[in-house]
Amino acid sequence: MEKQKQRFAAVLVFGGIAFYFGLTHFNTVVRWILGLLGLCTPALVGGVIAFLLNVPMCGIENLLKKLFYRQNPQKAGKLLRILSLLLTFVCIVVVVALVVLMLVPELQKSISSVIVQVQKHLPGAIDYLYSLGIDTTMLEQQLAAIDLKELAGQMINGATSMVGTVVGAVSATISVVGTALFSLVIALYILIDKENLSRQSKKLLYAFVKQPVADKIYHVGILVREVFGKFLSGQSIEAVVLGVLMFVALSLFRIPYASLIAVLTAVCAFIPYIGAFISCGIGVALILLVNPLQAILCLVVYQVVQFIENQFIYPRVVGSSVGLEPLWTVIAVLVGGEAFGILGMIFFIPVMAVVYTLLKETVNGRIERQKAARQAETMDEILEETIQAMDDADEQEP
User: Fold this and answer.
1) Could you write out the DSSP letters of every residue in 55-70?
2) pTM for the whole thing?
3) What would you report as the CA-atom Rg of the chain, rounded to the nearest whole angstrom?
4) Do residues 306 and 314 make contact, with C-beta atoms less than 8 angstroms apart?
5) In sequence order, which residues have a C-beta less than 8 Å from that of residue 243 and are 6 or more positions away?
6) 351 closest CA partner among 379, 372, 331, 378
7) pLDDT (tens digit, 9 = 90+) per residue, 189-230?
8) What gap in Å lies between CA 151 and CA 164, rounded to an integer?
9) CB atoms within 10 A of CB 303
10) Cα–Cα distance between 391 and 267 in angstroms, integer?
């Protein structure tokens, strides 16, 4: 008991000294923390990359086990793990390449069609302004001096140079390339030897934390892994299905830019609720420049497909996977978007699912304990009444 008091006093004294030092040297402490985070950035980013890549990698690895190790999956060694990892990277590269190859030609086609439509309708618009008594001489001179094709090329080159400038600035300030390479290497080692790392982490947890707390932490970690894995896999499947459905529906009605709108829909599907408005708005705006009637048809078809997907596909693929009700999903999107922007809107849904599951387990556990306590009290009362009845019966006997 005396040792515990001394230990508590020592912790209190050193904690007070540390707190006072932190207040008086706040800037120094902040610099130390930022420096430590800078050193740990590759490991943290690598852990996040490994966590995200682990979802498709596990799916591919399980499929390969069923194909080659159906009788005894335990015999699958690290060679199968490395093959699964390589196939995961190949799939990612193929998906990114397909998206780029589909988007770039469609964007070029969209810009060209916009230029054609502007050149076609501009004289009519100028004549209409002239009929209203508006002097369009200065406007005609300025428009005549503009080469729309050259302007489009300048816009594309400007956008490219702006992207290059941004990437260069980011690379120069935080060394993105080096951090990405180190993070990727760390992620590879984590994924290849994840069972051993998991076992070592579990040993450290139970070695330095009391068992009840360690059990709770371990349970939360398993829950986070399962919920995020289900959410990412379900969201990916839902995005692919929605993109395919949108492409088929738009192609059946011969709506232009079907592939571009479908790809935008699949990409924006990772942003809950807001992504549908973004892709629909861009698609309708592009088609409006070509044919207003087809723009209205595109809006109707898009909303019908989105309704079918929200009612029949999303709840089965994503909603049921994370076990979150629609109300809490909306709250998670609003809170995450307000706090962290688009990334918050995407990842706050599984975070809310984890919190919801833990809260549900806590509530159900408390209710069960209360029921058990009430049953115990009832049994004690019944036992006391039985004993009292037996005593009364003994007293009444002659």
Assistant:
1) HHHHHHHHHHHHHH-S
2) 0.66
3) 32
4) no
5) 262, 263, 265, 266, 269
6) 331
7) 888 888 888 889 889 888 888 888 888 888 888 888 888 888
8) 19
9) 12
10) 78
